[in-house]
Description:
Organism: Paenibacillus flagellatus
CATH architecture of the largest domain: 2-Layer Sandwich
Largest sheet: 9 strands, mixed
Strand content: 25-35%
Oligomer: single chain
Number of strands: 17
Structural class: alpha+beta
Domain Serpin: 89-451
Protein name: Proteinase inhibitor I4 serpin
Number of domains: 2
Number of helices: 9
CATH class of the largest domain: Alpha Beta
CATH superfamily of the largest domain: Antithrombin, subunit I, domain 2
Order of helices and strands: EEHHEHHHEHEHEEEEEHEEHEEEEE
Helix content: 10-25%
Main location: secreted
Pfam family, one: Serpin
Amino acid sequence: xxxxxxxxxxxxxxxxxxxxxxxxxxxxxxxxxxxxxxxxxxxxxxxxxxxxxxxxxxxxxxxxxxxxxxxxxxxxxxxxxxxxxxxxxxxxxxxxxxxxxxxxxxxxxxxxxxxxxxxxxxxxxxxxxxxxxxxxxxxxxxxxxxxxxxxxxxxxxxxxxxxxxxxxxxxxxxxxxxxxxxxxxxxxxxxxxxxxxxxxxxxxxxxxxxxxxxxxxxxxxxxxxxxxxxxxxxxxxxxxxxxxxxxxxxxxxxxxxxxxxxxxxxxxxxxxxxxxxxxxxxxxxxxxxxxxxxxxxxxxxxxxxxxxxxxxxxxxxxxxxxxxxxxxxxxxxxxxxxxxxxxxxxxxxxxxxxxxxxxxxxxxxxxxxxxxxxxxxxxxxxxxxxxxxxxxxxxxxxxxxxxxxxxxxxxxxxxxxxxxxxxxxxxxxxxxxxxxxxxxxxxxxxxxxxxxxx
Length: 454
């Protein structure tokens, strides 16, 4: 018997697309749950996923006007947001360095710190002893008790889902567990109350269960993910933890499609790729110094925005990464407004990551070790450990916006808007973050080495 959360992918593996993990090994070709299981060991697999697509905004949970939401944002524990952002940058570093070690200098590295930390938070509530301590350290919660962390996550999720009429952000969690399994009541109560997770007690080894899970995923992502599980889950699977994030945002000022033209994008190795370059001029939150330019492109009424950070030509994305990984707070500060002629590539990109090694590299080791893992707060089963943390991201940015189903301490000198617009042409590798402008939470982050590579 074991705890397992199934990988949640925003695509149909039956289509045969190959996805590689952070070690460069083929992940999904012929993927089936049985292939992930070592028959003689207790297995725990935790999964988190995020789908970003371009689709029409629908049924947003506006809930409160901009001022009301600003007041509510002030009540969100800033330690939770800071911990999530810092965790995201640490994980981004692990993934970026893993790609470079494989020779992928132009790799696009995208992830959702919010999605990963939310899924791990659910598992954290089932952890005890040193396992819990390592998870807290990795998530940045050492000075935050479990109750405070859960309350903070609950408040943040509730606020994010009220993102305005022109944006939609939905978070869904569910826990599927073997019928008859005695999960501890405090764990179940927390999962229901603080993460609003649906609970499903079912025959996990039954033939109908994969279809039921896939139907749940399809519903939460509005059909953008229609298959997550291929085949039976196996006799020794006792629980499945799922997390899904759906984001749909329309630019406050859409880019005119008539202004989009094919232009060169210079890759890290000096070669060029042709990309569709969107363009418009407007008043934006903008900052720059001797090493970089940064701009915030708002969605809807401005509750959400895309932050784009572009290294100056005499600098590089590697140098920008070092600044971001050391201290990203500079890019979460307010920027002055300026008139900017912005050129931004239209791009699609995705990422499929096996996060076991990156998380272990951040200090979360015991959770993956059958002989050391302690998930005694979840159930009285030994051994019980996390077999895999899987994360999938798909992002599509175009003239209309970003629609989805899955920023150094150098002072900024900004003057008033000049007579001629400032120019920011994103024609070389850059960093972006989709952020909640009121809490400063970076929900999705990424580095784009080649926009032409989808």
